[in-house]
């Protein structure tokens, strides 16, 4: 080959190699879509937007939130986990979509244990038993007696089979021995909360982040938080243990995952961006004001988050497999 052509050929090869390397090292080179599998205004959407806002700064590219609601969050998660594994489609899921859904939907189109890439936990979200403000029972004991006596009349709101609100109220109904309360399904607890505030449904079990402000404003009432400790965001709300129902305790959470097979560079950068967001004072304050529990260092790692998903799936599967799907 003549020298000039050889030099040009080598230069072209080097340029291609550089472009490839730069692209791999340069993730992300375009906006990243984060699928929120519920309606806007609910806990998943709220946490996703707060965290993504800061992660976008670290990544140097916008994380765009896309709400894909339906089937208790499984429609959106299935969309995210079957997307190209290139780091440009990820999802904010939770206890429901990652740990409860497999026990709820026998034909689920994704496998959170073996078929996805975890990034990390974004926050713990204590569960509150909340009711419309003029619902008759005054406290948790009153609520328990009232619901037992009127199981055929009261209405529960939830965000679809396998969602956190459905899962946690299903466990509550198991404790109360009232498995068949009339339930109204919404595309997220954002819209369900609107109907609770306007008094069209009686009660629900929801993650603190979307209800804290309404409880503080007395637009709805909170009977108890189903955690071991009271939430600093709502210090007047007793724990279920304090209020007389110690057997009802459940911790919910939200976290980020993507399709299996994501490039290591994308995983590393997303993990780093999540960690930086959770260490950022402004982001922390926004999360803490809503009652979010900040994840431990271990829970912020892909392996730590995967272990949490598996632990909770193992815990929930027996109760949810046997529960009425309504
Ligand atoms: C939501 O964001 O609407 C909730 O997380 C739904 C739920 O799982 O209850």
From TrEMBL:
InterPro entries: BUG (IPR005064), Bug_dom1 (IPR042100). The keyword Transcription does not apply. The keyword Metal-binding does not apply. It comes from the Bacteria. Gene3D superfamilies: Bordetella uptake gene, domain 1, Periplasmic binding protein-like II. Residues 1-24 form the signal peptide. Keywords: Signal. Belongs to the UPF0065 (bug) family. This is Tripartite tricarboxylate transporter substrate binding protein BugD. It comes from Bosea spartocytisi.
